Amino acid sequence: MNNPRKSAIVLLSGGLDSMVVAGLAKAQGFDLIALTIDYNQRHRIELQAAATIAAHLGAVEHIVLPLDLTRFGGSALTADIDVPKGGVDEGAIPVTYVPARNTIFLSLCLGLAEARGARDLWIGVNALDYSGYPDCRPDFIRSFESMANLATKAGIEGDSFTVHTPLLHMSKADIAAEAARLGLDAGMSWSCYDPAPDNKACGQCDSCRLRQKGFAEAGLTDPTVYA
């Protein structure tokens, strides 16, 4: 069993943000236990990206957990709903929001953490350059951390959990620059919600637009191949 304070449960989607979070956890000396949720999203590319990133960072364990959220639907990522391609609509929660996704995923991270004796959960939520999802806000993270320490044996025994969100107040440009600082190849990561049939990124969905904007503002080359 690893030292509980040296094992990090990292929610690894395969995206740029989760890659940087995993890199930061490793840089701080944590052993990485990566958790990727295969929720039957629109494509498999980000799952492949997560496997590549986990292997590159030397994760001691990488779990790909199947959870078919298409049974719930309610999102352009889990139902037959078109992914918007017209840009981010400020003030509106887009149809790419997956109902309660970060609550569900962090709960799974929490269960894995308690089972593995880890007390540190790392997630790449961002409240600055993002698409307006409610489960990326600081209040949500603080509330989840409080709940985690009320809902677990470890928590009520005083062995508390911490949810690490190092990207919370960073711009997408900051995140792109952080990937470069950590020596991480951004080409390992995947952001597009709706790739073309030839597996190129669409370049038009909210996630692609935010990624392109971030790399441009950071003065860095985006290695993504766009359709």
UniProtKB/TrEMBL annotation:
The protein's Enzyme Commission number: 6.3.4.20
TM spans (from-to): none
InterPro entries, alphabetized: QueC, Rossmann-like_a/b/a_fold
Positions contributing to Zn(2+) binding: C192, C202, C205, C208
A Pfam family recorded for this sequence: QueC
Pathway stated in the Swiss-Prot or TrEMBL entry: Purine metabolism; 7-cyano-7-deazaguanine biosynthesis
Cofactor entry: Zn(2+)
Catalyzed reaction equations: 7-carboxy-7-carbaguanine + NH4(+) + 2 ATP = 7-cyano-7-carbaguanine + 2 AMP + 2 diphosphate + 2 H(+)
UniProt keyword terms in alphabetical order: ATP-binding, Ligase, Metal-binding, Nucleotide-binding, Queuosine biosynthesis, Zinc
GO MF term (any one): ligase activity
Note on how the cofactor is bound: Binds 1 zinc ion per subunit.
Residue positions binding ATP: L12, S13, G14, G15, L16, D17, S18, M19, V20, V21, A22
Family: Belongs to the QueC family.
Physiological role: Catalyzes the ATP-dependent conversion of 7-carboxy-7-deazaguanine (CDG) to 7-cyano-7-deazaguanine (preQ(0)).
Protein name: 7-cyano-7-deazaguanine synthase
Organism this protein belongs to: Sphingorhabdus arenilitoris
